[in-house]
Structure formats: structure tokens, C-alpha cells
From TrEMBL:
<dbReference type="InterPro" id="IPR041048">
    <property type="entry name" value="RuvB-like_C"/>
</dbReference>
<dbReference type="GO" id="GO:0042127">
    <property type="term" value="P:regulation of cell population proliferation"/>
</dbReference>
<dbReference type="InterPro" id="IPR027417">
    <property type="entry name" value="P-loop_NTPase"/>
</dbReference>
<dbReference type="GO" id="GO:0045893">
    <property type="term" value="P:positive regulation of DNA-templated transcription"/>
</dbReference>
<dbReference type="GO" id="GO:0060828">
    <property type="term" value="P:regulation of canonical Wnt signaling pathway"/>
</dbReference>
<dbReference type="GO" id="GO:0140861">
    <property type="term" value="P:DNA repair-dependent chromatin remodeling"/>
</dbReference>
<dbReference type="Pfam" id="PF17856">
    <property type="entry name" value="TIP49_C"/>
</dbReference>
<keyword id="KW-0804">Transcription</keyword>
<keyword id="KW-0227">DNA damage</keyword>
<keyword id="KW-0132">Cell division</keyword>
<keyword id="KW-0547">Nucleotide-binding</keyword>
<dbReference type="GO" id="GO:0016787">
    <property type="term" value="F:hydrolase activity"/>
</dbReference>
<dbReference type="GO" id="GO:0003712">
    <property type="term" value="F:transcription coregulator activity"/>
</dbReference>
<dbReference type="GO" id="GO:0010628">
    <property type="term" value="P:positive regulation of gene expression"/>
</dbReference>
<comment type="function">
    <text>Proposed core component of the chromatin remodeling Ino80 complex which is involved in transcriptional regulation, DNA replication and probably DNA repair.</text>
</comment>
<dbReference type="GO" id="GO:0005524">
    <property type="term" value="F:ATP binding"/>
</dbReference>
<keyword id="KW-0156">Chromatin regulator</keyword>
Length: 456
């Protein structure tokens, strides 16, 4: 008899460079804990970011922005992400790099404005009359086609919704049946149907079916309480860019020609200022009525020195807008040429008039002890076992080369350990991996020593 182990069908999540960041790691008095919430060291920078978070919460950051300035690999992106995490899970965080604005398909200012709108959330709260419950019956009723012939059409749908308090049978239009099919609603699903618009929202599978083997690792929800017909507060989080994109798309028909027309359209289309102004008016109206609230997010622009003089000028207007997110810039450059000019040099490659608007937070190089703590944290995040002497060796490599290079050696060292028949990374694995690869400084030294052997 052959016995095979059934492998887990849960999708493996990719571990990114900042998966371990959970917040700024500050105590109740706003002082940085040496290692907390995924951050190590950089106490002054983290405390400064904590002050910025307090300013944002008290709505006193309008018209200003933050600049994180420091050498490569000093945690600028990590602090920007941690700032967004401190503001809340539902706060939009939109990262981009300065070079993204140079697209052949779309204007520079359009790319910036699109990302600005991605970083502004809108939380819409509506009290709606709904029918909510677990689907216990779903029967389409067919009738002869009014056009004649042999075909049949759905005249109406009989659906029974069940809650902990009772059940109710509903007769629905064919249009709602199409919405049910679009949401892939089946018997056993928990749904709600809006009484006025007929919109259908599938909330998940009833937890009564949680013991069944499910290939798609379904999300299970409890059976709703109360009556089937009720008033329910529906909360929806969208960004202003979502509203722009939804209103910019032409509402074509469902025929083949219309669908082909949509496919042939270029993927990046510019949204007009007129459309944005109209959406802003509707958003303002919702806010005045108390239906919605604005959630300013964080727009993180890394390598800000890559922007040119035109985009810097545009940023002035965007920062002064009533609808502006919290903008965090980051750069690792010192005094350099402002892109788009021939002879204008400025600190960090940013014009002086924009620098005046910025609160500048400095990040410092890590010492060896901090590097070893970060390496332990990364190994733990990636599920790797590593010996203390191996961590110490990696810390030495990070000091001589860079922290990023030391972190990159973790995965090849783990593979080397597996080849050598171990589940944990030992000192010899670090030494073997270190002999196979070169860091940037070592490579530059070899190039300098053997420059006559390379083409220049």
C-alpha cells in the first residue's frame, strides 16, 4: 500500500525586504525602543517620525512634507513604511521612485498626480436597507424567449436567505441573477442584497461548511444574526484614484466588438483635470453630508533626486492642494545637480524653495551590533535557523561591505547548509558563500587593480 502526504494548499506569501516592519517601535512617551516593531537602532530618526505622526493626527501637516536623508541602507524606506503603519492599517501607503515619472505613454505630472490620488483614501459609511443571510435555496425560473425560437430566458430567481433568527424567500429580477453569477454565489454562501439598488455582495462561505475540504482555502464567516431584512451600515474604503479610474472607463456594451475595443485601448490613459474636479465636488458633498470621511495616506517618493525641475515645480502646487496626502521623500545624495538644469547645484538635488517646505530627518549608518540584530530579525522573518557565530561573521561582512549585501547572503548560505546536510546556517556556510560572491567594494577594488585588463 502506497501512502502519500498531502501537501498544504495554502499559498506561500513572498517575503519582501520590509515584511517585518510593524510600526515605529516607540514607547508611550514617544521615545524609541532600541529594537521594537521590526526596527533596530535609528532612535533619533524614529522619534522624529513619531513627532510627525502626532502632527498628522492633529491635522497640522498641511502644505509640508518630510525628507529622509542618509547613506544607502540606513532604513529610510523602513521608517517611511513604519510611519504609515503607525497611522493605521487602513491608511493608504503608495510607494514610488523618482524615475517612474519618465514614461513614454503618460506625462510626468500625470504620473505624480495619479500617485497623489492613490495615496488619498475615502471611507464611505452608508446605512442601507439590505437582505442579509446564508443562501439556502437559489433557483432560476426560466420562461420561453420573447424573441421566439427554441431558447429560454430567466424570468426571475427564487432565493431563500437564512439567519439565526429565521429565513425569508425572495423573488428577484434577472438583472440581480446576473449580479449573483458575477459574484459566484452558491448555496451556503453568506451574502447581502441592497434593497434599493439590487447590488449583491458576497461576504464569504458560511462557517457551517468549514469542515469541508476546500481547494481554494475559502474565507468562512458566521451565520448573520437578527432578521433577514434589516438596516446595515456598509463601510467601503476606496482611494481617489479608484474613483477616477472607475469614472474614466467608458461603459461599453457586453457584445464582442465592445469588449475587443476595450482590450485594444492603451493600458495607461490620462484622466482629465475636469473629471478629477467633478469627482472632488462629489467627494466634498459626501464629506459635508457626513456620509464619507477623507483618509490622507502616505505617498513615499524614493530617490527624489531623480525628479527634474518641472516636476519639483508641480510638487509645490500639489502640496498646497486641499486634497493632499502626507508626502515623504527619501534620498541618499549629497550636493548634486538638479536634474533638468545645466548648472544649478543644490543639497540632495532638490531646489532650495522646496527644501524650505521640508522637515528633514537624518538617518545614520548602523553599527555592528545593530547589524547583527537586523540579520537575526531577517533570518527569523525568512524562517532560517542560524548559529550565533554565523551571525557574528555576517555582521563583520556588513561592516566591511554593506548591510544589504550581508542580508543578501542569508538565502545562499541557507542553500549551502542544505547541500552540506544541515538545517541551520553555520560559520562555514557563511565563509563558503562569501568566497563565491563579491560585494560592490571588493569588485571595485579588483577593477582598479586590473584596470588594464578591462575595456574602458
Amino acid at each position: 500500500m502506497k501512502v502519500e502526504e498531502v501537501k498544504s494548499i495554502v499559498k506561500t506569501q513572498r517575503i519582501s525586504a520590509h515584511s517585518h516592519i510593524k510600526g515605529l517601535g516607540l514607547d508611550e512617551n514617544g521615545f524609541a525602543i532600541q529594537a521594537a516593531a521590526g526596527l533596530v537602532g535609528q532612535e533619533q530618526a524614529r522619534e522624529a517620525a513619531g513627532v510627525v505622526v502626532d502632527m498628522i493626527r492633529s491635522k497640522k501637516m498641511a502644505g509640508r512634507a518630510i525628507l529622509l536623508a542618509g547613506p544607502p541602507g540606513t532604513g529610510k524606506t523602513a521608517i517611511a513604511l513604519a510611519t504609515a503603519q503607525e497611522l493605521g492599517n487602513k491608511v493608504p501607503f503608495c510607494p514610488m521612485v523618482g524615475s517612474e515619472v519618465y514614461s513614454s505613454e503618460i506625462k510626468k505630472t500625470e504620473v505624480l498626480m495619479e500617485n497623489f490620488r492613490r495615496a488619498i483614501g475615502l471611507r464611505i459609511r452608508e446605512t442601507k436597507e439590505v437582505y442579509e443571510g446564508e443562501v439556502s435555496e437559489l433557483t432560476p425560473v426560466e420562461t420561453e424567449s420573447p424573441a421566439g425560437g427554441y431558447g429560454k430566458t430567466v424570468s426571475h430567481v427564487i432565493i431563500t436567505l437564512r439567519t439565526a433568527k429565521g429565513s425569508k424567500q425572495l423573488k428577484l429580477d434577472p438583472s440581480i441573477y446576473e449580479a449573483l453569477q458575477k459574484e459566484k454565489v452558491e448555496v451556503g454562501d453568506v451574502i447581502y442584497i441592497e434593497a434599493t439598488s439590487g447590488a449583491v455582495k458576497r461576504q464569504g462561505r458560511s462557517d457551517a461548511y468549514a469542515t469541508e475540504f476546500d481547494l481554494e482555502a475559502e474565507e468562512y464567516v458566521p451565520l448573520p444574526k437578527g432578521e433577514v431584512h434589516k438596516k446595515k451600515e456598509v463601510v467601503q474604503d476606496v482611494t481617489l484614484h479608484d474613483l477616477d479610474a472607475a469614472n474614466a472607463k467608458p461603459q461599453g456594451g457586453q457584445d464582442v466588438l465592445s469588449m475587443m475595443g476595450q482590450l485594444l485601448k492603451p493600458k495607461k490613459t490620462e484622466i482629465t483635470d475636469k473629471l478629477r474636479q467633478e469627482i472632488n465636488k462629489i467627494v466634498d458633498k459626501y464629506i459635508d453630508q457626513g456620509v464619507a470621511e477623507l483618509v490622507p495616506g502616505v505617498l513615499f517618493i524614493d530617490e527624489v533626486h531623480m525628479l527634474d525641475i518641472e516636476t519639483f515645480t508641480y510638487l509645490h502646487r500639489a502640496l498646497e492642494s486641499a486634497l493632499a496626502p502626507i508626502v515623504i521623500f527619501a534620498t541618499n545624495r549629497g550636493r548634486c545637480l538638479i536634474r533638468g538644469t545645466d548648472d544649478v547645484y543644490s543639497p540632495h538635488g532638490i531646489p532650495l524653495d522646496l527644501l524650505d517646505r521640508l522637515l528633514i530627518i537624518r538617518t545614520m549608518p548602523y553599527n555592528r551590533s545593530d547589524m547583527e540584530q537586523i540579520l537575526k530579525l531577517r533570518a527569523n522573518t525568512e524562517g532560517l535557523e542560524i548559529d550565533p557565530d554565523a551571525i557574528s561573521a555576517l555582521g563583520g561582512i556588513g561592516t566591511k561591505a554593506t548591510l544589504r549585501y550581508a542580508v543578501q547572503l542569508l538565502t545562499p548560505a541557507h542553500l549551502t547548509a542544505k547541500i552540506n546536510g544541515r538545517n541551520h546556517i553555520a560559520l562555514e556556510d557563511i565563509e563558503e558563500t562569501g568566497s563565491l560572491f563579491l560585494d560592490a567594494k571588493s569588485s571595485a577594488k579588483i577593477l582598479q587593480e586590473n584596470k588594464d585588463k578591462y575595456m574602458s
